[in-house]
Amino acid sequence: MALKRRDFLLFLGASAGTVALGSLPSSEKKFSMPFSNSVSASSPAGRGLSFKPLKSPMPLPTEGMELTKQTQDYSTYEVVDDLVLPEGFTYDVIAAWGDKVGDSRFGYNNDYLSFVETGNEEGLLTVNHEYISSVTWTQTFDKVIGKSLPFADLKEPLDAAAKDGINAYALPDNDPLKAKIREISKEALIDQGLSVISIRKDSNGQWVRTNSQVDRRITGASGLDDGRYLKSTGPAIAVFRKKQGQGYVDTIGDRIIGSFGNCAGGTTPWGTVLSAEENFQVQVPEPVYADGTSFSPEERTFIIDKEEVGGQGNVIGLAGNKYGWIVEVDPANPSDYGTKHTWLGRYRHEAVGVRAEADKKLAFYSGDDRRGGHLYKFVSNDSVRNPKDKANSKLLSQGMLYTAKFNPDGTGSWIALQPSTPVNPDMPSVVAGGMIPLPKRPEGGIVKVEKDEDMTAFKQQFKTLGDLYTGNAQEKQGAILIDAHFAANAAGATATARPEDTDVAPDGSLYITFTSGSSGSDGGLDNRIFQGPKGETPYEYGWITHLIEDGNDPAAMTFRWKMLSLGGEPADGGLGFANPDNLLLDKNGNVWMVTDMSSDKHNKAVPKGRLDKEGKPISQSDLRGLFGNNSMWFIPTSGSDAGKAYLFAMGPMDCETTGPFFTSDEQTLFLAVQHPGEVNGIRLDNKAETREYSMRTTDGQEFIQTRQVPIGSNWPDKTVNAPPKPAVVAIRRLDAKPISTAQLS
């Protein structure tokens, strides 16, 4: 099935000044360019592109290559442990893990980037630091940081504890094991959070750090020993200030120790940066009681497994209800260590889409990146006067949080998360995996409902969200926001496919990437909404969705939406990549997109016939090995090649490319390279191996590809046996022209 470009153009049209999903009040333009109903395999590759697309691991329609030549040219492929860019482009490493930042160091696993300009070719780069990759962090910590941690001393007790982990919170304060766990946990928390660094472009066109007085770290441990607590606003403060409750109370009121799990984010027109706390449940308990208080820190034990260092909040006694928020930081204010705005809800936040227009309500969009997670919108009580006025931050302290209900007919509505909202959950039978988690009452926590009759009984027992939570009016509202995901399930929000980015276009419409259509222990997606190009469910490779508020009003309670599957192999209607993640719109309305395939799936071999050892078909999840490393793509939205995808960059081994952000002149593209070497650690002595893949031509003919795959990574130093380090780079053209001219003319 070929991708229908006409649908794609309609889908992306609003950002290019065309009409999407019907006529919009803000635009009366119609399509004027010619287009075909499918991507042509015979057209030359990027005739108007000013960059030569990279060779993908698989044949792409955009190359215009004859089918017989595809099997020849793609019979071999070599993966490179580097950030690979087109001819005429280069990159400079601006900061890497361990570099000095203020009185601390540049953190680990950099993600979202924000560049707030303070002058001509200078400004403040704010960087998120998401989590700790256990293999590389434990293997290289002493080499990079110059400090030894007691990993070896913990091996035996961790092995003995196995999956149960170690409950360091319950150990006596004078226990040596507790001290060692605290030391590791604190260093891991320091390597998360945010970095603010000042940079400028030098006479050679390279970006360099200037190490100004505003350079600083906001870490997962800020406030623990240094008094640099984070602040909070909104109804959840009433819960934070409790002296006692049904569950755990940390006794420091509305002050908060640190920020961690900082994944994607957003930037406001008034120059503040929004950092989204995502997988906080790895470090602290997520479930809460009906009054919004946390489960005990003992419920999330300390562990080091093959993926992460988890339970860092256990030994310190962090209250779980204070994590999973949006943090706002003013990078230009050296005394600002962040504010968590609780009206925006507590869940596994990904990006933040900001819509701030004069004389309209402020709207913030964010997704809950879990299987079965929801799309949310915050709407302020008061209107924006001047979008660039820093006083707009006060609008985040009063408003309402809504969650999205998608209807199969392309319409939708917003459900308020407030005590009076009716309990009206979907039935488990409509979601992949057949399970929806709900607030468990009266015990607290969650209950996984798997039968429609049990869901019906739940609806009969609880009539409104207020029936599920306790306290006075403000405390109930705070508890609902703290328990936002499970409250949204109870209210009937649509279970979606891991929403990983929310970007507001200049016309006010919203783009959402849904990165993965598989189900899991957290839940699954609505099968009526999320389907592959042939109607299949589940569909692993991901979607991009376009949402337009009715009346083009940020405060509208209804919307229209359209979805088109982008991920997948060309032979099946995909564009040649898997798991779309962060989006970036340039001034011309074109889309730049990075992918987020799981590290352990990169370059995984796919045997002939695509059958496993038992003769069963390889899963879509494992077929992601065909797509190579994570990558960055350019998708024009105008011209004769609009709707096609061109490979712009390939990341180093085991990494994720994240947080793309342009300078205002678009001569520089900042990019974060996260967790290189995450699976195999340091690449030793240029180790590589040969693997075989069952590839397909663009029309579906199978052939075998032999691929050379490096084992581990030495990026960014790129010297033999160098430790891999997450780092932020500045991509530029050697001719110093804007990168955004890399488009169809």
Describe this structure in words.
The chain has 745 residues and is α+β, with helices and mostly antiparallel strands. It folds into 2 domains: 1-99 and 566-745, no CATH class; 228-559, no CATH class. It has 10 helices and 36 strands. The strands form 9 sheets. Strands 17-18-19-20-21-27-26-25-24 form a 9-stranded antiparallel β-sheet. Strands 5, 6, 7, 8 and 9 form a 5-stranded antiparallel β-sheet that branches. The protein is globular, with a radius of gyration of 25 Å. Residues 13-45 have low confidence and may be disordered.
Quickly count the helices.
Answer: 10
Strand residue content: 25-35%
Main sheet specs: 9 strands, antiparallel
Structural class call reads alpha+beta
Give the helix level as a range of percent.
10-25%
Return Rg in Å.
25 Å
Low-pLDDT runs: 13-45
Number of strands: 36
Look at the structure and give the mean pLDDT: 92
Shape: globular
CA distance, first residue to last residue: 28 Å
The largest sheet has its strands arranged as 17-18-19-20-21-27-26-25-24
Question: What is the domain total for the residues?
Answer: 2
Write the layout of secondary structure elements.
Elements: H1 5-12, H2 67-73, E1 76-78, E2 89-96, E3 100-101, E4 104-105, E5 110-119, E6 122-129, H3 134-145, H4 151-161, H5 176-190, E7 193-201, E8 207-209, E9 216-219, E10 231-233, H6 237-240, E11 262-267, E12 273-277, E13 303-304, E14 309-310, E15 326-329, E16 339-341, E17 349-355, E18 361-368, E19 375-383, E20 399-406, E21 411-416, E22 436-439, E23 446-449, H7 452-461, H8 473-482, H9 484-491, E24 499-504, E25 510-514, E26 543-549, E27 558-565, E28 580-585, E29 591-595, H10 620-623, E30 631-635, E31 646-650, E32 656-662, E33 668-674, E34 688-696, E35 702-710, E36 727-733
Parallel strand pairs: 1-35, 10-16
Antiparallel strand pairs: 2-36, 3-4, 5-6, 6-7, 7-8, 7-9, 11-12, 12-15, 13-14, 15-16, 17-18, 18-19, 19-20, 20-21, 21-27, 22-23, 24-25, 25-26, 26-27, 28-29, 29-30, 30-31, 32-33, 33-36, 34-35
